[in-house]
Write a structure and sequence with these properties.
By secondary structure, this protein is mostly helical. The protein is built from twelve helices and four strands.
Length: 397
């Protein structure tokens, strides 16, 4: 059956209730941002010991989701896998929405977001030997390439789309490898420092990006009351299993090598200290073990409910993988003067999540939800099989 892309005619009461809830959360987040802009970062949970908080966690998490989603669009537009065409167009748009949310997260962490333009003053106001400066080039280029890529898809230019798709795939991998390098190249932070971090970040991006894509597309089809080929998603479930196993292998190698000197003590602290329950329970248990068990069972993997459950667990688990990198990674004392002085004076840092920081974080997710829903409403993103008749969306009467 031929696929025809059409907007979703959202006109139901459920649609307006959802829009109202997301708008309220977005406005609440913006109000919290204004308050924090006036009073400063003292309203956040970050402190001298743990300088990075939810804004950084959300930023690197969204960058990974975006990069993974964009890379997966290449299954159709680069590698010609037609069975995945029903997710390919929406994956590019989702990648744009997610990277925009990540840039909002960065601007909130800056404290003075009106000066964000300075990040893009390459070779003039930036130290180009810094990974932060290099990533500014990668993020800016990623945004432009993604828009061009989506425009060519809408224009139905398959030859040019394939070329740009190859560039987009490579650039997306570089973007998240660059993000991983920001952490992996910091030798002073033993929990961060690892040459595997860029590759670990890409594997996590692919797994979480695919998991989110499965969730979003299935719910979009159900909300629009459109039929879809379930076998295509079951095939994606096998791919998701492979990507999750690859991520587990990389994380395991990273942690095992860190158990040797000179990083043994910080790694043992991470695996058995005050943040161990987050690592073992939410990152490993929720993000790795349970999804692998679910996806390894054919009867569960080949059901929409089982696939959605595994995908939800991976999306949540990868979020806490990022949380466990940023918060424990900065909470562990740095050896300023080994044997004499440790910052901050050798005490393990703490991160009390504040209400204003939580509302700002929820506001970012709500804003992205609004953009994505309006994209479904006004853009030709969701496919409709040619012989289907569009149904009223989400319980419309």
């Amino acid at each position: 059956m031929k696929l025809v892309y059409t907007p979703i005619a959202f006109r139901s009461r459920n649609f307006y209730l959802l829009i109202g809830a997301l708008a309220a959360l977005s406005i609440s987040g913006f109000i919290c941002f204004v308050i924090s802009y006036i009073h400063g970062h003292e309203l956040f949970g970050a402190n001298n010991a743990v300088p990075w908080g939810m804004a950084i966690i959300i930023t690197i998490y969204l960058i990974g989701l975006s990069a993974g989603s964009l890379i997966l669009s290449s299954l159709t537009y680069v590698f010609g896998r037609e069975e995945y065409r029903l997710i390919s167009r929406i994956s590019v748009f989702l990648a744009i929405v997610l990277i925009f949310g990540a840039m909002v997260g960065i601007s909130l962490d800056l404290g003075r977001p009106e000066k964000m333009w300075r990040l893009f003053m390459f070779f003039v106001m930036n130290n180009m030997r810094s990974m932060f400066a290099v990533n500014g080039i990668l993020y800016g280029g990623y945004f432009i390439i993604s828009f061009v890529y989506l425009g060519l898809i809408f224009a139905d230019k398959p030859k040019i789309t394939k070329k740009i798709g190859i560039l987009a795939m490579i650039w997306a991998a570089m973007v998240h490898m660059g993000t991983g390098a920001i952490f992996g190249f910091i030798a002073a932070r033993p929990i961060f420092y690892s040459p595997l971090k860029p590759f670990e970040f890409v594997a996590a991006a692919m797994a979480s990006g695919l998991a989110l894509l499965i969730i979003v597309v299935i719910f979009a089809f159900k909300f629009a009351k459109r039929g879809f080929i379930k076998e295509a998603f079951f095939s994606l479930g096998k791919l998701l299993l492979g990507l999750t196993i690859a991520l587990v292998v990389l994380v395991s190698i990273d942690k095992l090598t860190h158990l040797y000197s000179p990083h043994r003590e910080p790694t043992v602290w991470l695996l058995s200290g005050p943040f161990a329950w987050l690592f073992w329970g939410l990152q490993v248990g929720c993000g790795y073990v349970l999804p692998i068990l679910l996806l390894s069972h054919p009867r569960i993997r080949n059901t929409i409910k089982g696939l959605l459950m595994a995908s939800f667990l991976i999306v949540i688990g990868i979020f806490f993988e990022r949380f466990n990198l940023v918060i424990p990674g900065t909470a562990y004392p740095m050896p300023f003067y080994p044997g004499r002085i440790e910052g901050v004076w050798g005490q393990v840092g703490s991160f009390p999540l504040t209400a204003i920081e939580l509302l700002m974080s929820l506001g970012i997710f709500a804003m992205m939800g609004l953009f994505f829903i309006f994209g479904l409403k006004y853009l030709e993103l969701l496919p409709l099989f040619e012989r289907q008749v569009p149904a009223p969306a989400s319980g419309e009467r």
